[in-house]
Recover the amino acids of this structure.
């Protein structure tokens, strides 16, 4: 339509004639008379472009190198982060973040491709250990776990001495994050996730071995909380100590018998020596008589 108006302006036609021609050809789709007059004026003043001029004061795009780098860094730190979380963290709209991810970073969802190429992992032998939080015990949660074939177990109520998070994990996080201040909850969450990823698999395995020891101590203490307390020795420990004491007594008795035998032998030797002396004296007396 602008091209037609431009050609008619070069032919010297008036605004009214151009508008009437457009109405005849385009009907209701034709531009208004005022708009046609404005375009005719611009073309007569020498405008060649058919596009609108950029409006002064138009807001600049929020997408820049700094924004792209920040979003990329957040994604690399947490590959499971949601677009809404990136939007809140960087102060951008959902659409801006999504455009940055798909057009500037060229990232796409790969979950479906991974599911096609990766063999299925059996969950029949997976045991999920839960704390007694409301969302964990919700019917929707337990039903979903059963559908996935995942077995789950709950912590005993009021038993922080048996929960790995209470007796191990939380103390580690507090030590590592001590002295640091966070202005936003998103920054705190990012720091916690970073620290959790530095913990090695062997550390988690060691914690569950320690948990087995704690379960045994809980049984020995008849279900009482034993954290910070010296537990009484178990029956097996008492039997072992009694057997050791009995062995020591037997060794002492044997040593006493040996000492007694040695004493008796010494007395016998002394008596034999005395008898030998008496015989020598008798022999000497007999010689003198002769």
């Amino acid at each position: 339509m602008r091209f037609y108006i431009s050609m008619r302006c070069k032919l010297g036609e008036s605004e009214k004639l151009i508008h009437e021609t457009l109405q005849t050809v385009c009907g209701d789709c034709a531009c208004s008379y005022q708009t046609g007059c404005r375009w005719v004026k611009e073309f007569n003043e020498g405008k060649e472009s058919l596009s609108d001029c950029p409006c002064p004061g138009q807001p600049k795009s929020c997408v820049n190198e700094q924004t792209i780098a920040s979003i990329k860094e957040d994604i690399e730190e947490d590959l499971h982060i949601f677009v809404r979380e990136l939007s809140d963290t960087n102060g951008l709209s959902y659409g801006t973040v999504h455009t940055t991810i798909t057009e500037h970073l060229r990232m796409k969802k790969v979950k479906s491709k991974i599911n096609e190429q990766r063999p299925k992992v059996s969950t029949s032998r997976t045991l999920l250990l839960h704390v007694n939080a409301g969302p964990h015990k919700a019917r929707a949660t337990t039903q979903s776990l059963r559908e996935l074939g995942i077995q789950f177990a709950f912590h005993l109520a009021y038993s922080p001495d048996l929960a790995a998070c209470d007796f191990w994990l939380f103390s580690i996080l507090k030590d590592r994050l001590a002295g640091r201040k966070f202005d936003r909850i998103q920054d705190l969450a990012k720091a916690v996730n970073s620290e959790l990823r530095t913990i090695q698999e062997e550390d988690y395995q060691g914690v569950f071995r320690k948990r087995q020891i704690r379960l045994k101590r809980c049984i020995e203490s008849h279900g009482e909380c034993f954290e910070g307390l010296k537990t009484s020795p178990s029956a097996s420990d008492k039997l072992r100590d009694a057997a050791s004491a009995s062995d020591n007594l037997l060794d002492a008795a044997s040593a006493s018998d040996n000492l007694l035998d040695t004493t008796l032998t010494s007395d016998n030797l002394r008596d034999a020596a005395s008898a030998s002396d008496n015989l020598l004296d008798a022999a000497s007396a007999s010689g003198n008589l002769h």
Observations:
- Residues 238 and 244 are 10 Å apart (CA to CA).
- The first helix runs from residue 2 to 10.
- Residues 229-236, 286-290 have pLDDT under 50 and may be disordered.
